[in-house]
Amino acid sequence: MSGLTSQYLDTAIRERIGATHVEVVDVSGGCGQAFEVVIVSPQFQGKNRLMRHRMVNNALKEEIAQIHAFTQKNFTEAEWQAKQ
Question: Which residues are paired to 46 by β-bridges?
């Protein structure tokens, strides 16, 4: 078990990436080994998908190393509004 929780990741993402909206789902049945996240941040503006993923991976490097699976979907605020 990694000991990571959805709440911990939510807080870390908001603090490190300046996210305005975060959704974290533990898809490992509660053991903290697989997470799916949606991140909305103004810092993604002007960056392609790969650059956004790298930003998140670098910001959460230590946490991601502890878990089995980490799936992310990243949006700017405008992209997120259009999707809603």
Answer: none
The pTM of this model reads 0.93
Mean of pLDDT values over 28-35: 88
- pLDDT at position 1: 52
Average pLDDT over the chain, rounded to an integer? 94
Between the CA of residue 84 and those of 13, 73, 79, what are the distances in Å? Answer: 21, 14, 9
pLDDT score of 51: 98
Give CA separation, 74 vs 1, 17, 31, in Å.
Answer: 26, 11, 24
How many Å apart are CA 61 and CA 42, to the nearest integer?
Answer: 21
SS3 state at 20: coil
**Radius of gyration of the chain, Cα coordinates, nearest whole angstrom:** 12
Beta 21-26 vs 34-40: how paired, if at all? antiparallel
